[in-house]
Amino acid sequence: MRKRIKIGTRGSLLATTQSTWVKKMIEAEYPGVTVELVKIVTKGDKILDVPLAKVGGKGLFVKEIEEALLRKEVDLAVHSMKDVPSELPEELHLGIIPPRENPHDAFISTRFAKLGDLPEGATVGTSSLRRRSQLAALRPDIKIVDLRGNLDTRLRKLDEGKFQAIILAAAGLNRLGMSNRATGYFTAQEMLPAVGQGALGIELRKDDAELLAGLSFLNDDKTTVAVRAERAFLHRLEGGCQVPIGAFAEVHDGKVRLTGLVASVDGKEVLKESISGPNAEAQQLGTQLANKILDMGGREILAEVYGQE
């Protein structure tokens, strides 16, 4: 292993916490290696006053980091997998997928334990069209308001009384040691997570075989299979992270079960189906499930969503 490694990361508290975990794992495995975090500002970090779905484009939180990788200014990048587009630059790949954190969404409120406890017309904050559409299907009476900013900023807005509740990824809360803020969790049946939610992806240059081999101890096979299935589903739908698409794969005894969703933003149309098969066919299963949902009416729903961007 080389003596010095540079990790490209966003500068948010969550991103640096995730990258610091990778840094510590590498330095523990290789005591003579020094790992440096290089903070990179992405387009998604700069534009905070516009809903993510309206900013447009794929890779809002990864493009600038990938460019630094391609220029060899950093050796690897640590991403939240739910932020990574289904298509990567030709020279790069997601070489390592560590064990997944809690993949589900958390319900957070200062007064209410769960979504069903909210009074009619309550205000709920989220930045995700996926969450918005599923919330609208579960509780068409509530008011859903766009909520941008880092995790700590979103929690502060809740504490200031601007929302009766907010929805965040459980993984982010757990990684920051703030799981006590969650008053409840959605099951996958209630709210399907984003593709790759709860998983980290370590992106590398394809020609850097030495570093890939050195970091292989971080890879988790089950998480890799699950993420592969979910991302194949997303890839076939040509979706970015800011469209109402959800997918969640569970891996047991050599088999993967994938559930996928496409929904209208208002929650009035929710198409959800599942498929199962051997781990080795994870990507084919993702593609097959996407085709099935497209044929069920997903094609028309997505065309309408993309037309609104």
How many H/I helices? 10
The dominant shape is globular
Structural class by sheet pairing and helices: alpha/beta
The number of distinct structural domains comes to: 3
Class of the largest domain, according to the CATH hierarchy?
Alpha Beta
The CATH superfamily of the largest domain bears the name Periplasmic binding protein-like II
What is the CATH T-level topology of the largest domain? D-Maltodextrin-Binding Protein, domain 2
Stretches with pLDDT under 50, minimum 5 residues: none
Tell me what you see in this structure.
This protein is of the alpha/beta class. The chain folds into three domains: about 1-100 and about 200-220, Periplasmic binding protein-like II (D-Maltodextrin-Binding Protein, domain 2, 3-Layer(aba) Sandwich), CATH 3.40.190.10; about 105-185, D-Maltodextrin-Binding Protein, domain 2; about 220-309, Porphobilinogen deaminase, C-terminal domain (Double Stranded RNA Binding Domain, 2-Layer Sandwich), CATH 3.30.160.40. Helix content is about 35%, strand content about 25%. The chain is built from ten helices and 13 strands. A five-stranded mixed beta sheet has the order 2-1-3-10-4, sandwiched between helices. A five-stranded mixed beta sheet has the order 7-6-8-5-9, sandwiched between helices. Strands 11-12-13 form a three-stranded antiparallel beta sheet. β12 (about 255-265) and β13 form a beta hairpin. The longest helix has 27 residues, at about 280-309. It is globular, with a radius of gyration of 19 Å. About 45% of the residues are buried.
